[in-house]
Design brief:
Length: about 375
């Protein structure tokens, strides 16, 4: 009995003669491959988010990993992949878990507040009557928010959502922890075997779609990397900085507002909405000076991030017009969940590349023929 040998490198075995399969056999084989692929996707569908995030983090960290591997080749197989996986855990996952914990705590407080408002209504704030057109605002508040019936029309399921979250929280935490473990395993193995996997994908893409397919795949990788670096990392930094500022200024639910700032910062100037909301909370609480300080800090952070930091991370190849960025992010999140924050802009960036080549605005294999 022969000892099993590891697989040879992709591209080692090539056909020496054309296939003699009939047309019917080729069609049947293609159908069988599609069915097997669909069956495999269905088998793994519960873990696809973990695999997707592992691929996204691997693409983002790959240039740094390769630079470190060139300086220390002996660590390529175990030490460097483990180190970068631990780095991802420390830099991305642990802070995100801390934010998620604070968000869960704030969300439960908000749910309790909604349940109380649902039962008793919301009293009119004292400052509302001192504002311009205060009489009209007070009357509108009393009509829309001051009675339980009005609150019931705005938040019909407040209590049900609160109790459901309390019953399912342990199961959700266990499920997220399991997905986190598989994401880290995926990241480790992709960093360890990334060159081999990339070479195999390049061969398969060239066989299926030619050089145009390889170029599109390269653009997809650049789009994912640029999206992660320019949107996720920069947005995460904005959320952390502004979350700390919110907490120091005494903004209520600072963690929720920090998370909202991070999410909205993916949209150009979207974080302005979260900063304005935080400043409004402070002004409503009578902290006018703190509101002004938060507005100034937020303006500086957003301006520096959008005009200096983000363009350096994203680069020219994946830049999209504002409208397409907005549609890609919102549509991606709606269609794919949180991972759509990366998948949406990456897909739109690839489609934009194809369009630019098709109309001759960008050099590539899809350029129109010269007159």
């Amino acid at each position: 009995m022969q000892t099993p040998q590891p697989d040879d490198a992709p591209g080692t075995w090539t056909a020496q003669a054309p296939s003699n399969a009939t047309r019917a056999q080729r069609v049947t084989g293609l159908v069988a491959i599609v069915l097997l692929a669909l069956a495999g996707i269905w088998t793994l569908h519960l873990f696809l988010p973990a695999l997707g995030w592992g691929v996204i983090f691997a693409l983002s960290l790959w240039p740094l990993h390769e630079a470190a591997a060139r300086r220390w080749p002996r660590g390529r197989s175990i030490v460097l992949p483990a180190t970068f996986t631990l780095l991802a855990l420390l830099v991305f996952v642990i802070p995100l878990a801390m934010v998620a914990s604070a968000v869960i705590h704030d969300s439960m407080a908000v749910s309790q507040w909604l349940a109380q408002a649902h039962a008793q209504g919301l009293p009119v704030p004292d400052f509302l009557g001192r504002l311009p057109y205060g009489d009209h605002l007070v009357a509108l508040w009393q009509q829309k928010l001051a009675t339980p019936e009005a609150i019931d029309r705005l938040s019909l399921h407040a209590r049900q959502l609160h109790f459901a979250s309390g019953e399912r929280i342990l199961g959700q935490l266990a499920h997220r922890a399991l997905l986190l473990g598989f994401m880290l395993l995926t990241l480790f193995f992709l960093l360890r075997d990334g060159a081999r996997v990339a070479h195999a994908l390049q061969i398969g893409t060239r066989r299926a779609f030619g050089e145009a397919g390889v170029r599109v795949a390269d653009q997809a990788v650049l789009a994912v990397r640029g999206t992660v670096n320019g949107l996720i990392i920069v947005g995460f930094g904005e959320g952390v900085l502004m979350g700390l500022a919110y907490g120091l200024a005494g903004v209520v639910h600072a963690a929720l507002l920090g998370l909202l700032t991070a999410l909205l910062s993916a949209i150009p100037f979207g974080a302005v909405v979260a900063v304005a909301l935080a400043a409004a909370f402070l002004a409503a609480a009578g902290k006018a000076a703190a509101a002004v300080v938060i507005a100034l800090i937020g303006g500086v952070v957003i301006f520096v991030a959008d005009h200096f930091v983000r363009p350096v991370f994203i680069g020219g190849a994946t830049r999209l017009p504002f409208l397409w960025v907005l549609l890609a992010i919102l549509g991606g999140i709606e269609s794919w969940g949180l991972i759509g924050l990366v998948v949406g802009p990456a897909l739109v960036a690839v489609l934009m590349l194809l369009w630019r080549e098709w109309v001759g605005a960008h050099q590539g294999p899809l350029n129109p023929a010269a007159d």
